[in-house]
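Sorry to interrupt, but I need a hand with the structure work. Could you write out one complete protein record for me, on any chain you like? Just paste the record in under my message, thanks.

. . .
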Amino acid sequence: MKRFARPAGYVVVAAALWFLARQFAEDWPTIAAWRPGPAVVGAFITLGVVYGAVLFLLAESWHRIVGLFGAEGRQRTYRSYTATQIARYIPGNVMHIVGRALWLRGGRLTDGAIARATGLELLVTPVGAVVALALMLPFARLEGLPLLDGARPLIAVGSVALIGGLLLMSRIGPVAKRFAALTAPVLLATGFMLLLGLIFAMIVNLVGSAPVLLAAAVALTGWIVGYATPGAPGGLGSREAVVVALLGAIGAGESAVLIAILFRLVTTLGELTCFATGALVWRRLRPAAPALAG
């Protein structure tokens, strides 16, 4: 299956980009006519900086996941996250993952422990997205989105089962403490996703108009699809295609491509802000000398 996953992902990305190109051509009059004032431009820049700050929730989640396998200071875990997050735009969508692992080598964790922490982080973040979506859907009006509307019970039941399973495992056997410790990373990832949805809703309402919860649900659905597309750098293409398609379904089609572009620009600015903040802050702090594993 692994042999075919990445080629299949490239096919999905190519199809998504073709779809976006068609929509871009159709929406060009709206895009060309859009003239944001200084206040709107300032609002988008502010949202980018805010998103950069929100990314530190995921950095803290990563720190706590690493802590399940060995003691590492935030000077190393945060820096391993902030310095490598922008590498997800390198084709293949794995360099940020490899970068974090390489950054932590030579410290208190063995290579095997770093690999396990990385695998766990790859699961925890989308779990946070699903839980956040499950929290939104019961309160969102989903007219025009029958797929999401029909998925309400499935997502709700799945989230309850997942959380219940984690709570159950936290009380059973020798792994109890480790599963209990996963609560904080999942909550941090969920908080990040809720704020990501809110940022997207603000972008939508700076350009057009849509209910906040509905717009947030669109953003998280696009994020999940982008995350699950093998080889898509930063979910590029597939995330935007889902966002454009769903915005069109809820009546924001004329501005959908513009919103998707602005969403990508805001999140990219946020990732650069996170990178710069990590470089400036942690450079001033003297990292603890790591004890070699083994």
